[in-house]
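Duplicate of earlier report; 5-dehydro-2-deoxygluconokinase input re-posted below.
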Amino acid sequence: MESEPYELITMGRLGVDLYPLRSGVGLDRVDTFRRFLGGSPANVAVAAARLGRRTALISRTGADPFGTYLRRELKEFGVDARWVAEVPEHPTPVTFCALFPPDDFPLTFYRRPKAPDLEIHPHELDLDAVRAARVLWTTGTGLSEEPSRAATLTALRARSGRPHTVLDLDWRPAFWPDPAAARPHYAEALRHATVAVGNAEECEVATGEREPEAAARALLRLLAPTGPESPGGPAAVPLAVVKRGPEGVLALAADGRRAAVPPLPVEVVNGLGAGDAFGGALVHGLLAGLPLEETLRRASAAGSIVAGRLGCAPAMPDAAEIDRALATGTGTLPPKDDHP
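Output:
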């Protein structure tokens, strides 16, 4: 491990996203696609890097050209890929999306027989780096199969309730036999996390509660109690963040803080990367010590900006773009398809 800890380590899903260059039609009628780096934890790392944070990803790819492409993209986006290893037995996953804006973006996952990002083993983790990171970001997808489940729980336990130990609920029905099978694993992971993030459906899977206030309170009950102080910083205060789509976002903290903010209006192109942009900006706000409401406003603005663009990773906004969106009251900004 290098002497300087990472500000953010994310862990889990990584693959190639193929988005059609034509909206409003099914995949059976699309003949042109554009390739992007994909996978929620990878996109969150990119989003935080775009905001100036030192980030790294723990994941796996196949030993194939798509894996080479993804490692190259991570490097160009400023994400350390030292822990993105190859798994020769499984191909790098590909995900196709159909675009039916403003709110329908069905995904078709090609992750069989098994995605390499589910082949992260506990003994392969650099737990010193995981402990030292100012934020660890894990996902529910990482709990869906072994050995990734054991690795995710090992990483969470290594943090011992330290501040900013995040579980993004990231519920993907295609990766689980049924919601009932998922809930015990979510409960175990939340016992070691200090921040939970999810939408209404994800909260219902994890807690049985769908209404935002009830879901947030249920998450707070499941999260780790106040943990030890971080190096040079305060102890963890559990935080539950519930994304409500067009109604905005709600957050409750165990110390009584509450914030609810509406989304910025945007002409939606592709809503899939919005949550990842939100996550990267949420991490930035937590690290910067911003007030909770300001953190949510900036994270919500970041999500709106990306929803107005085709790609996810290359669309992640920098701080100036977030400022501009908040000042103008709209997430519809010029396209941003280049690398930083």
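The chain has a mean pLDDT of 94.

Merging into the original ticket.
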